[in-house]
Structures are given as structure tokens and as C-alpha cells.
């Protein structure tokens, strides 16, 4: 196993696990600069068990996607054999280790605490683990507190498996040449870095550190290539800025709300647009390949992976318009749209009900209107009804006046036929706010 051979030997430098930081762009950046192994952020087993493994041909990644379409973990060929997928449980420790912890509670007595630590490390070794990482601080201590180097030394001397030293970012490791000193003085086999890498990942670079602006640009390029969420990209860039977050650059980054705006803040507009064009070309190629779109039943809802692309339709034509006209032709009730918004990124998803059956796209859209259009597309494609895309033959569903953007007697029907019922409710998942909305008509 390449990973085992790399990780559990001596003189390995690793990117430590960090919440919100250890996503794919940061891991790739660390590898670019010389890290041997990279850890992803801690992932909860219950959430991962609900994910679907998806091969993303557009990004050339493998994604683990939650039912709400959030990408919980994304990886690519570049980090194969060098990424540690870290999954945790709420009850991680075996009963014998939990008993050990209960019998050796933390104490202000240094000698007693050291015995507890050593006993715990030895018990963990007996469970069969290949290596153990030791962070040289106590449970109640924070990064501002000095590192207990002697605790790492004691743990390294108490077991035969490799020990990975962690926690030296502030006290001992500021540049690449400090990493080996930290490993040697701690007595550990290897070193992992968290904050030092978060602030400037070129700490892994044997040739010396790079200017912060260069590191930020390199990170952002990975974020753009792999469609990293703008909120996460912005968070990581602000962590790199540290005390420069109120500088002109920092203010531009803080003000940005989208990946395009973040790219503009760092002067990478051209790279962003070129990358978007390449990704869109891949999407178009995949779409034109003729592969049938897969239908999945989610309870009583028929779902399909559909993204509403406005540019694929004439200026005055929409799938909702075609669906409405088709419903009138078939003498059915008007389509009913139910739209929800998630508070995390303010994206929307809609379900359309036609003839008592419900349809939606599995993807989340940037606006309520786009979400409703995507739901309409799902129904139209499932039923084989024209949707009005550029290049389709004239189906006669929409009159010539509407196709040419001219007003007719039905021009005001959208406003008169719409009614919205907005309410707010908090779901059981923290940080998620669903805003239901019902829409009748186009």
C-alpha cells in the first residue's frame, strides 16, 4: 500500500487535519509545496454513510455527495496514495480505552498526567494501530499555550510504532528548516503541521517560503479548478491573511461573495474565466454524448440531475412556459411549484407537481426562478415534451408572439397566476434554514 509505506515511516511531513481548511485545494497546495501526506478535515461517519460516491467527469474528481447535494469529500488523481481520509465516530474509542481514560482523569499533577498519557499511548498501540500522532498540549490548553515537547518525547519513547509530532506551529516551526529540528528534538518519527501550513503552505517548500500573495494565488487556482465552494475559499484566504485581513487586499477578499468576485480581488479574472470556459466545454461534450439521463425516485419524487442553463434557451422562452402551455393543451391544472432555500449558501431547490406527480432536480440553483425552471425541465424530459431549447423544432406549444418576445393577452398572466406562501422553519440540522414557497403558473 503506497499510503502505508509513505505515512508510517520516518521523516515524513504531513498536512494536519483542520476543520474547514483541509479541503481539496489546500491539500493539493501542500502537496505542490512538498508535503508527503495530507489529511482531510474530520468527517462524521453518520453523514458519510448517507453519501453517494459520484465520479465527476467535468472536474475529473471523485465526490462523496450528501442527500442535500453538498459535497462532503472531494478527491482527485493528484493526491492518490497520499491523502488520509479521516472519519470519526461519536463513540470512537473501544470500551477498554474508555475505561482507561475514566480511571486516569486529567490532573494538575504533571507526574500523574504523564503516567496516564504513556499508559494510554501504550494501550492504543496494543489495539493494532500503525502510528499515533501526539499533539503536545493538554485538553484545556489552546494554541497560545507553550508546547509540552517533553510529553511528545515520552510518548515516542514508550511505544515501538511511529509517533507523529504535532503542535509545533507557533513555538518551534516557522520555516521549512525548522521541521527537521522539531522532529529530532521531539524524538518523533514524523511531523505534521496545521497552523503553520494554514498561514503559508510554502512552509513545506525546501527552497524556502514564497510571498503570501503568491501562495494565495496558487491556492485560489486550485479552488477555481475544482469548483470549491466560495465560502470555504474565502475562509481559507482570510486565515492566510491573518493580521493583514484589514489591508486593501483583505478588504477586497472579505467583500467578495462569489468565486468570480474572489478571483477579481486577487487579479485572477482571466484565469477564472478560462477555467469556466474549459469546464463548460466538458459539460457540453458530456451532454452531447447522448448518454441517457438517469432517473432516481426519492420517495414519491422523480429526480434527475439537471442544471438550468439560461443561455440554452431563446431570450423570451423558458421551460416553465412550455410546461404551462402543455398543461393547458392537456386540460390539466396549472403546475404547482414548491421551493425551498437552504441558509448555508442561500441556494434554492424546487419541486413541481403535475397530474399529482412530483418532479425535481437534485441540484441546487442560485435563484428561486432557476430552481423552478430546473424542476420544469425534469418533468419535460421525463415526459418527452419539448422544453424550448435553442435548436429544437417548433412544437407549436408556445405561440409565435411569445417566441419573438411580443406582448399578447396572456402577458400579464404570470403575475396574476402566481401566489407565494413564504414561511420560515428551522430543520433539525444546525445551520440549515428551509424557506418553503408555493408558486402557481409560469
From TrEMBL:
Listed GO MF terms: tRNA binding; tRNA dihydrouridine synthase activity
Residue stretches in coiled coil: none
Region (Disordered): 400-442
Keywords, alphabetical: RNA-binding
UniProt biased composition (Basic and acidic residues): 404-422
UniProt KW NADP keyword: no
Pfam families, per database record: dsrm (PF00035), Dus (PF01207)
Record-linked CDD domains: DSRM_DUS2L, DUS_like_FMN
One GO term describing the cellular component: cytoplasm
Domain DRBM: 318-385
Domain of life, per lineage: Eukaryota
Gene3D superfamilies: 3.30.160.20, Aldolase class I (3.20.20.70)
Keyword Lipid biosynthesis: no
PANTHER family to which the protein is assigned, alphabetical: TRNA-DIHYDROURIDINE(20) SYNTHASE [NAD(P)+]-LIKE
The protein, known as: DRBM domain-containing protein
Species per Swiss-Prot/TrEMBL record: Gasterosteus aculeatus aculeatus
Amino acid at each position: 500500500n503506497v499510503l502505508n509505506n509513505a505515512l508510517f515511516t520516518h521523516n515524513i511531513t504531513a498536512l494536519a487535519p483542520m476543520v474547514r481548511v483541509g479541503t481539496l485545494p489546500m491539500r493539493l497546495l501542500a502537496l505542490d509545496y512538498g508535503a508527503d501526506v495530507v489529511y482531510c478535515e474530520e468527517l462524521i461517519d453518520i453523514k458519510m454513510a448517507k453519501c453517494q460516491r459520484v465520479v465527476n467527469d467535468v472536474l475529473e474528481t471523485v465526490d462523496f455527495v450528501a442527500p442535500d447535494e453538498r459535497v462532503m469529500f472531494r478527491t482527485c488523481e493528484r493526491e492518490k496514495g497520499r491523502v488520509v481520509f479521516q472519519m470519526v465516530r461519536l463513540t470512537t474509542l473501544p470500551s477498554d480505552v474508555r475505561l482507561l481514560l475514566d480511571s486516569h482523569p486529567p490532573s494538575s499533577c504533571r507526574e500523574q498526567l504523564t503516567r496516564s498519557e504513556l499508559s494510554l499511548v501504550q494501550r492504543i498501540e496494543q489495539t493494532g494501530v500503525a502510528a499515533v500522532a501526539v499533539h503536545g498540549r493538554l485538553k484545556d490548553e489552546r494554541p497560545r499555550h507553550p508546547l509540552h515537547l517533553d510529553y511528545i518525547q515520552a510518548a515516542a519513547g514508550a511505544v515501538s510504532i511511529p509517533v507523529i509530532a504535532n503542535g509545533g506551529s507557533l513555538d518551534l516551526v516557522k520555516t521549512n528548516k525548522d521541521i527537521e529540528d522539531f522532529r529530532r528534538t521531539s524524538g518523533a518519527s514524523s511531523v505534521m503541521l496545521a497552523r503553520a501550513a494554514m498561514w503559508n503552505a510554502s512552509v513545506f517548500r525546501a527552497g524556502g517560503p514564497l510571498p503570501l500573495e503568491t501562495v494565495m494565488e496558487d491556492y485560489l487556482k486550485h479552488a477555481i479548478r475544482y469548483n470549491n465552494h466560495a465560502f470555504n475559499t474565502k475562509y481559507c484566504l482570510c486565515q492566510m491573511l491573518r493580521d493583514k485581513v484589514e489591508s486593501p487586499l483583505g478588504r477586497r477578499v472579505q467583500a467578495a461573495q462569489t468565486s468570480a468576485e474572489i478571483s477579481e480581488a486577487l487579479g485572477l479574472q482571466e484565469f477564472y474565466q478560462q477555467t469556466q470556459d474549459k469546464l463548460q466545454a466538458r459539460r457540453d461534450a458530456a451532454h452531447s454524448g447522448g448518454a441517457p439521463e438517469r432517473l432516481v425516485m426519492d420517495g414519491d419524487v422523480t429526480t434527475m440531475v439537471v442544471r438550468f442553463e439560461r443561455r440554452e434557451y431563446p431570450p423570451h422562452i423558458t421551460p416553465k412556459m412550455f410546461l404551462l402551455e402543455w398543461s393547458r393543451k392537456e386540460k390539466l391544472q396549472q403546475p404547482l411549484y414548491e421551493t425551498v432555500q437552504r441558509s448555508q449558501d442561500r441556494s434554492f431547490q424546487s419541486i413541481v407537481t403535475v397530474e399529482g406527480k412530483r418532479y425535481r432536480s437534485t441540484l441546487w440553483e442560485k435563484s428561486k426562478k432557476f430552481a423552478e425552471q430546473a424542476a420544469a425541465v425534469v418533468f419535460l424530459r421525463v415526459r418527452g415534451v419539448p422544453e424550448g431549447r435553442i435548436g429544437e423544432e417548433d412544437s407549436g406549444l408556445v405561440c409565435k408572439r411569445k417566441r419573438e418576445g411580443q406582448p399578447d393577452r396572456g402577458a400579464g398572466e404570470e403575475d396574476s397566476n402566481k401566489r407565494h406562501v413564504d414561511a420560515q422553519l428551522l430543520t433539525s440540522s444546525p445551520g440549515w434554514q428551509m424557506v418553503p414557497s408555493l408558486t402557481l403558473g409560469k
